[in-house]
Amino acid sequence: MAADQIIVLGDDGSIVEVGTHEVLLAAGGNYAAFWNQRHRASGWRLVAG
Questions:
Q1: For residue 25, how far is the Cα from the chain centroid?
Q2: Looking at residue 21, what DSSP letter applies?
Q3: What InterPro entries does UniProt report for this protein, alphabetically (predicted)?
């Protein structure tokens, strides 16, 4: 991740998390949940059936 700092916003627009990629993953909050879901879905393929 090439960002110096990542800011995570809540549903109401408030700042809920701030930190580097590594810090936010270790914290296990909203950013970590998003990142883990994105990572798990990275190999998915849609197949017409």
A1: 8
A2: H
A3: P-loop_NTPase
Please, is 8 exposed, middle or buried when counting C-beta atoms within 10 Å of its C-beta (0-12, 13-18, 19+)? middle
Q: Are 5 and 20 in contact (CB under 8 A)?
A: yes
Domain limits, the chain: 6-42
Condensed to tens digits (0 to 9), the pLDDT of residues 1-49 reads 688 999 999 999 999 999 999 999 999 999 999 999 988 887 777 788 7
Tokens of 15: 């700042």
pTM (two decimals): 0.74
